[in-house]
Design brief:
Radius of gyration: 21 Å
Structural class: alpha/beta
Shape: elongated
Strand content: 15-25%
Number of strands: 9
Order of helices and strands: HEHEHEHEEHEHHEEEHHHHH
Oligomer: single chain
Strand order of the largest sheet: 4-3-2-5-6-9-7
Helix content: 25-40%
Length: 294
């Protein structure tokens, strides 16, 4: 076979990533201690961040948004592989230090990095070209709302890979009928095809969390869910269905529909048994219920 031309884009710079000693030194200089309040656990293993970037399929033309970059472990690995990285950081000390870390560790790529010092839940626009990928080690306590908010507000994000608590990863990727299938599963599936993409041990973090972590891959749907109902209407059905998991949909949706008979009528019109439970339904079926009430 003829030799193929090398792929365009930046070549990996192996010595520029952060290791355990680098992380602790940076934190000491900044007087930073990871806080449980913000769910902070810093990745201290270069192989792990490279694995995340590789699993995310980051391409040389990607504009990657990262939420919660912390001290910059994953940020540097993303800059090796992507065209641009936009990092959203709420912490004052971390946000203040990150540009200098990028400039010192990867000066040739510093102009490809942009920091947004803000709460990710308050970000409605990002500087520069539209993001094509979201790759992040999401704080455990806000992982699901941040993920769903970013997918909603930035429809150009085609591919997402997030590291979250293993239990959350299982819920996001669960299919109908699974005991952990619930609101996060359905809402994530509204936007994307979702699957588990690996597990991460505790020893790659500082401080080491008392739970394992998991990688979740989300590839945005090329065609949105076919429904005449608005997303808010569909999500209202989902919320109601899982608010009382053990109840049949006829009972669980009675408040949403106005009465149990009205809920039954909507379910029958949607072709769904009133005796079914929320964990058995696909996102398309929830959409049909929303349509039937409308």
């Amino acid at each position: 076979m003829p030799d193929s031309a090398p792929a365009p884009g930046p070549a990996p710079v192996s010595d520029n990533l952060l290791g355990p000693a680098d992380i602790r030194e940076l934190a000491a200089v900044l007087g930073v201690r990871p806080t449980k309040q913000r769910g902070q656990n810093f990745v201290i293993d270069a192989n792990t961040v490279r694995r995340i970037v590789r699993t995310a399929g980051v391409r040389p033309d990607d504009v990657v948004v990262e939420v919660g970059p912390g001290l910059g472990s994953l940020t540097l690995a993303l800059l090796e592989a992507a065209d641009r990285v936009v990092a959203v950081e709420i912490d004052d000390a971390l946000a203040g230090a990150l540009p200098a870390t990028i400039a010192a560790r990867m000066p040739g790529r510093a102009d490809r990095f942009t920091l947004v010092h803000s709460d990710a839940m308050q970000v409605h626009e990002l500087p520069g070209p539209p993001p094509t990928a979201l790759v992040a080690n999401l704080p455990y306590n806000i992982a699901v709302p941040v993920l769903l908010t970013m997918l909603e507000r930035f429809p150009t994000i085609e591919r997402t890979l997030v590291m979250v608590q293993a239990e959350v990863a299982d819920r996001l990727a669960a299919k109908p009928g699974n005991k952990v299938y619930g609101v996060p599963s359905v809402k994530a599936n509204w936007y994307a095809e979702v699957k588990r993409a690996g597990s991460i041990g505790r020893n790659v973090f500082w401080p080491a969390p008392n739970v394992d972590s998991g990688l979740v891959s989300l590839v945005r749907r090329t065609e949105p869910i076919r429904t005449t109902a608005a997303k808010a209407e569909v999500f209202a059905v989902v919320d109601a269905a899982f608010a009382q998991r053990r109840k049949t949909l006829r009972a669980a949706l009675s408040g949403w529909a106005g009465s149990a008979p009205a809920a039954e009528a909507a379910l029958v019109a949607a072709g769904i048994s009133p005796q079914a439970r929320g964990e058995a339904l696909t996102v398309e079926e929830f959409a049909r219920i929303a349509e039937a009430k409308a």
